[in-house]
Write a structure and sequence with these properties.
about 375 residues; alpha+beta; six-stranded antiparallel β-sheet; four-stranded antiparallel β-sheet; elongated
Amino acid sequence: MNHEGSWFHCGRCGHVYGGEEKDLCPSCGKSPVVPEAEMAYVMAGGHLRRRERRESTKGSESPSVESAASGESKRRKRKGKSTAMLWFAVGWMGLLGLIAGGVAVVKLRSPKSEGSESMGIGDSSERNRMINEAYVKCREALVGYWSAAAPETRAEHTLNPEQTLRRMVGSGISLSVMKDSGALKLEWIDSFETSQGTAIASIWTEPDIGRIEAVFRKNDEGAWKLDWEQMARFSSTSWALFLSGGGPSSGEFRLFARRRTATGGGDGDGSLLVFVGPSGLGALHSGLQSPEVAIDPRSPLGEAFAKAFEMRQADKEVFGIRFAESDPLGMVRVRVKLTRDEKDDFGKHQLKLDEVLAFHWMEIDDPGIEIEE
C-alpha cells in the first residue's frame, strides 16, 4: 500500500515521480493508472512515439557529427594511401635509376678503344685524374716547343732529343713560332694504351700555326714529352724528291694509303695500293701520290690492310684515338719502308713495298694492327 511521499510510475508516459496516490502525473498531466480498456492503445502509442523520436533525431542530423567525422577519417585514409603509393613509386623509380647508372658506369669503356676491358668507378676516376695531371705537363712541353725558334731548344721538349735534333736539322722542316701561348686552345685530349705503355693523344689549335696533333709519352725520367716525328709527319727523305727519282732510292715514310679503284668502281680487291703524301696544309689535305703498288690480298700483310680499311670505313682508329676524323676519306695512315725501282718502259719509276712498320704515324714499335708472320 502506498503512503505519503511514495514514488509512482506513470503507466501512460513512463515518468517516475514522488507524491501522493491522488496526484496526477506531472509529465503528461493524466492519471498514472491506465484502465485495462486503454492499455493496448497506450502501449502502441508509446511505442510509436519512441520510434518517431528516434527517426526524428536521425533525420535532423544532416549530416550528423558522427557521419562527418567518419567521412573525414576515410578521406584522410585515402589521401594517406595515395601519398604512400606516390612515394613508393618515386622511390622505386629512383632505385631503378641508380641500378641502371651503376651498370652503365661498370660497363664504361675508353672512347672508341677496341679490346679495352670494362672499367669500374675507381678505374675511371683514376684515369681521369691521370689525364688531368698529364694535361698540365703536356701543355708545358707543347708551349715550350712552339715558343722556341732554335732547334736545340725545341728538341729538349721531345721524347728523343738527340735523334730529334738530327732529324729536325736534316729534314729542313720549317715550323712557325708561337707568339702568344694564351692563344693555344685544346680541342680534345685522351689517353690510350700501347705495348710500350700509356700515351696521351691530343689536338690543339693556334691562330698562326693552325691544327696541331700531339702525342705525348713519358721519357726515362717519367716526364711527358712530345712525339716529334708524329707531329711533324717526318719522313727520312722528301716524298716529292723520292717520287721524282732524286735522293736515296729507299726510305721510311709517313703516308696515306688507299686501295686502287676497280675498273667498274668500288675499292677493287685490295691487291693494288696507292700511297699519298700528307699535304703541307695539314692532314685534311693530301699531296702527291705514288704509282700502284701490288700486294697479295690473301697474305698476312694484305689481311692487315683489309682490317685497317674496314676500321676506317667504320670511323674507328688504332688505339681508339681520333686523329683520322679529318683525314681524306677512304685513306689510312701508314708508316712504311719503300724502295724505288728503275724506270719502266713508259719512263715511270716503280715502287716496292719493303715493310709496313705501323698503321699510324707515331714513333713507337707497336703497329696498331698485328701482321701475322
